[in-house]
């Protein structure tokens, strides 16, 4: 137990901050994912073949390639890409991007592909009559989306989005390869310096279980809220 | 774009794919048995057995695969007792540690898939078997299992693809699988995009094959609904 003590003697406070870091990366990645889903869901639902192709390309490639490979691409390629853009503006110094930003971007793109699929499925399962009725009533397109489609869509999407959240939360463990100090990385450091990997990795597993358990409780509450009246 | 590098790295990546496929097939093979075992335990009426099986799948589905590999590869070696048994022959090899972790992980997901497949079997089918005087064991092996396998095909196809992607984590315990070799080439040449296209292409080709194989099996054996 003294291994988990707070302060200089134990790893308690380090692991606590690492857990907060995992949460922060997961939430940022999830939000970045929503942003990507916002762009690619309309593309996937679009009637134009070429726009459709772009949307399908994104979700197929990201969901068919290992997460670790995507993270390596961003980790090794991220600063190179930014330096390339900067060099076009006449800036040739070395730019290093923060591991937090690269990590949450990489995970965000992955989580975005899953979110896109969820939103697409949810919109497609809304009754066609809803679209037609609002059209007949002369409701403007954006009001139709915010007031009629979105509330119905959220009810259908939340159970599947909770799966995406779980995947995202677990994927953040892979960012540890880039050196960002989240749960996995901190356990690795602690295990290395105390020579007690079994304890620290098991404790990391417990932390992840706790995170998934608590977030499921929270999401279930949301689910109840959004399925009122059904 | 460095096309020379792309062509040059292709054979290296292809030979690493063999390891990825070996990891995948072995862990799916063992995972299927683990999954079937735990699906049966889940349906047991004894609450202790039932809770144990539920706990297993909850823990393995609620934690990242990376943690599971690290616990098995780095953690288990710490137990002095294990080092003296014959198990140590297996556990000191990163290859087998990865397979054990993958098999346990996919076993947890497979048990959930099979359990829900078993539960959707219409009770009428089992009752019909009983009224024909077929013994319970035969009902289980000849009626329940074939139907459950058919019903779980689409979900199991997804699990195969998830596991294919999961095998990339073997590179974190020093195995040179497709992702491991890709990372090595990236870190020596600093050309991430080219290597990503080639390695990603190989992975995509494999997912494409799995996807179509499952579709074919579904058409052949599945239910037309």
Helix and strand arrangement:
The complex is a heterodimer of chains A (230) and B (225).
Chain A: H1 12-45, H2 49-64, H3 67-88, H4 99-124, H5 128-136, H6 141-171, H7 183-194, H8 197-226
Chain B: H1 3-42, H2 47-62, H3 65-75, H4 80-84, H5 87-91, H6 94-119, H7 123-131, H8 136-166, H9 178-189, H10 192-221
- Give the number of domains of chain A: 1
> How would you sum up the global shape of chain A?
flat
Tell me what the CATH architecture of chain B is: Orthogonal Bundle
Order of helical and strand elements of chain B: HHHHHHHHHH
* Multimeric status of the protein: heterodimer
Q: In percent, how helical is the residue content of chain A?
A: over 70%
Count of spatially separate domains of chain B:
1
Could you say what the CATH topology of chain A is called? Answer: MetI-like fold
Helix content of chain B: over 70%
* Average residue pLDDT of chain A: 88
What's the architecture of chain A, going by CATH? Orthogonal Bundle
SS field, number of helical segments of chain A: 8
End-to-end separation of chain A: 48 Å
Features of the shown structure:
heterodimer, A: 230 residues, mainly alpha, 8 helices, B: 225 residues
Structural description of this entry:
The complex is a heterodimer of chains A (230) and B (225). Chain A has 230 residues and is mostly helical. Chain A has one domain (2-226): MetI-like (MetI-like fold, Orthogonal Bundle), CATH 1.10.3720.10. Chain A contains eight helices and no strands. Chain A has helices spanning 12-45, 49-64, 67-88, 99-124, 128-136, 141-171, 183-194, 197-226. The longest helix of chain A has 34 residues, at 12-45. Chain A is flat. The relative contact order of chain A is 0.14. Chain B is an all-alpha fold. Helices cover 82% and strands 0% of the residues of chain B. Chain B has helices spanning 3-42, 47-62, 65-75, 80-84, 87-91, 94-119, 123-131, 136-166, 178-189, 192-221. Chain B is flat, with a radius of gyration of 21 Å. Chain B starts with a helix and ends with a helix. The chains are: A mainly alpha (230), B mainly alpha (225). Chain A binds chain B through residues 60-61, 63-69, 72-73, 76-77, 80, 166, 170-171, 173-174, 176-177, 184, 187-188, 191, 195-198, 201-202, 204-205, 208-209, 212-213, and chain B through 58-59, 62-68, 70-71, 74-79, 161, 164-169, 171-172, 179, 182-183, 186-187, 190, 192-193, 196, 199-200, 203-204, 207-208.
